[in-house]
What does this fold into?
Amino acid sequence: MKLKFYLFLFILMLGYNIVQGQDTVDVNLHIQHVVNGVSDFDRAKFITIHDDLTGNEWESDEQKRSLLEDYDVYFGRNNGGIVWEWNNTKEDPNKAGWPDVDYMKIRGQNEKSNYSSQTFVHQFENRYANMVVGGQEHMFPHGQATKDGLIYEGFDATAEFYGQYFKEYFGEGGTTGRPKPGLVEVINEPFVKTGQLGTTNLEMSKYHSVVAKRIKALNPNLWVGGYSAAHPAFESNNFGHWNGTWKTFIDEAGADMDFFSFHLYDFIQTTGDMSQELHRSGSNIEAIMDMISHYSYLRLGEVKPFSVSEYGWLCKTCDGGYDPKEDWYNLRSFNTMMVQLMERPDQLIISIPFMLLKASWAKPVDAEYNTYGPRLLREIGEVEGEKAHDGWVYTDLLMYYQMWAELNGKRVDSWSNDMDMIADAYVDGKTAYVILSNLNEEAKTVNLKIKGTSDNPLVKITAQHLYEIGDIPQLDTLVYDAAIDAFDLGQQATVIMKYEFKNEISLSESLNEKKYYATNYLVPIRPQQSLAFSIPGVDVGEHGEAVLRVGIGRDHGMSLRPALKVNNQVVPVPVDWRGYDQSTRDIFFGVLEIPVPHELLKENNTVELVFPDEGGHVSSIVLQVFNSSIDIARSGVEVEEVTLTVDDLDLGMEVYPNPTTGSLTVKGLNMNSPYSVFDLSGKVLATGALSAGEVNLSGLQDGVYVLQVAGMDQVFQVRIIKE
It folds into this structure.
């Protein structure tokens, strides 16, 4: 969003005026960042391709080898092979409606023998550990006959096929047969297809549970999950969508799932009109993941891992041939989403940017060229001026693998003063990588504060900057032989800066991150009523930081700036969140990430929220705690101690008379701006929205109070006196 984050903290009779100027990013290369025990960047989780070991759409073996090894890419997903086998399996002659297990054993042995002869691909088996194999909706038993005439009797019969398939068709690699995948997604995007299958979300959830149990009975080391959800819109129908989909699935099948899977897309519904794009990048993704995690914790007693088996950019109405602009939209979404997913290395098993190789199966019968969207390979001739059907070349989507080719190492501390500028950093021996991803729809100059290597000479910096010119993707390589103080980052662009030092970088300090979940979730918002949450069992270190993550789903125009108290202490709420204002979505559904002073935290914590208006829900409450071995200084803000009088603070807002005998007049802000009145202990006494620019204090006793008003781009708190 384009709003800037101006936060004014006032403590009793004194306050601090904190003003954000240019975007600033701090990186502490000596402070290792560990997320719930995980610090290493695992390329098998993030740098993946939607293909299998024996995928047959490559132009040559060398092309396959080059992409996998030169760019260090790992296999991601296959949703076709298991469907073919299901469709061609014979019926048990002694048990109608069930697969013939003897036939499957013979067929499986043939498949293993066939794989053993494909010796070229054996060298890539180390890139297969997190591989996902998924089914399609046809495999749900609903009375249909397979190609071989088998009509599966029901859930148990189909589950038998799944279990026997993974038992009989896979070996342990090399001459024993194709190695088993790491993950199984039972059916791809089933809930959007239950209508055409003549079933319900509840029955589909039961099916997942039956299939998972049988797969794991025959293949104990396989992880089975679901439900590969398409278009998560939890907030729809006042969270009726959530109740009918994810809550139903977790309640019915969650205990039998080893992981939860879903798909994330920025998407557009009207051809060519990018102004109407619906972004998930930013706060919406955070709200989706937090809500699933929170309910998983409450219902199952654990936070299940995630498989994000598709993510990127989607335009169902964008017909026609290859368009490099669509490559840019995908590249932009791949990068911004991935850096958000990288913040959850403990929970992510795998994430797969959705692009296929040639997608030959999708080519319309009468079309000269394929019109399928995100493809890594296109035919020469698809671009005007090229010779027709003259071979195959990479699309610009290759830039994704080019820019991420080298990233490795342990995560280290990074911090941005702008919610829309995501920062991340890693250290690998003598090399450090600093990543910046811009959610803003405008270019930004980012000030860089790289710390922790003062006695280690810098050799050079190499930056990979992926941005656009006229919506055509550009990947620039920039080399610097000395430190730089700032970087000019394109709109919605991402840069990876590789810092090479003379000596190894010492990780002498630590930052340990962990999330804690409230004991309740999905609470309806009532006007001027306290919403209470408890967060027990928090480990609070001697030093650190904390962020309260508040998931909110509300109609546009409603307040997103509640009054907040943590452990009975007032905590100001920022007026910014990740990404845009969600104006193109039906309602706002996102996470407010609210800094909380670490010293306020206890083992058992209370959170109180008060909204001035009615409607919507608080969908999740998560406390993100960062315990550090030392205090970490943050730059990028100016802090001035000030007295709490309007005359002394040039805030762009007038409040008078002060002192007052009954009401205050507030000028300089929108008339509908939400306000809260606190006593000096932090207790909320009144909330509302400015009406005719007035705040009525007639119901308060004489005394000293704090008035908080949220403007368009600032939050103001002013000491007031009632006489």
Summary: The first helix runs from residue 43 to 46. The chain has four domains: 23-41+407-507, 80-114+128-168+177-390, 512-628, 644-722.
